[in-house]
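Good morning,

Both structures are done.
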Amino acid sequence: MYMKLSKEQLTEHFRLSEFACGDEMIITPNFIQFVSRVLEPFRKWYNRPININSGYRTKEKNKAVGGVSSSLHLNAMAVDFSFPVEFKSMSKERKAQYLNNINQKWYSLCTEAGGYGQICWYDTYIHLGMSYNRQYFEDKRGKR
């Protein structure tokens, strides 16, 4: 399928401005691969909008939000987005299935792109990142 993209449009579902920290952004070959080979296929599989709460972060922004000094956000290799509204009303079993499906798909896509998936679950949002060093998972729900 051929699709003409504007300077702002990175993929069918993502615009460059969604990843920016204010008016700052870094664009690297790894970032382009992350968005086109991992995040876009994930979005198509997920089959619902992903509204990015946090993409790239400056060092100052990362420190202000309590991010770790090695955060993938500093290299524009991670995104945070809110769970869908219906997540709150899911049964415990359905939530577990939903999160397990996300983990499996994310790790698979990152591996296919030559990296390692990194996932953190929070009470209201999920963090997805891709590293070239190690796979990572943490459940931080109820810990803040």
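Second structure follows.
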Amino acid sequence: MSDHNLLEETVDAIESAKKTIADIVYIGTEGACCSWTAFALMADREYDSGFGSQNVLGDLRIIFADHSFLCRREYDGSEWWEYVSLPEIPPVGERLERVFI
């Protein structure tokens, strides 16, 4: 069994993304959200993040002010946070002449 505390895992994921709780603008799913305080109360418990069945909402997101975000990932019941950042806009190069091969 692979026990993890969701709140501790989340704080670690936020720090790994070089963000802070103050950077958060949204925590929730597509249809519902909550404050950091409410999330912390709900998330402060152990769960089995190992293979088996999923425990944490799969569509849970933490969105930061710069529009990067943490999203839940799952494979065969194993669960984790994944940080997604927006790609950098490349410098303007040559004019794009076609979009088909």
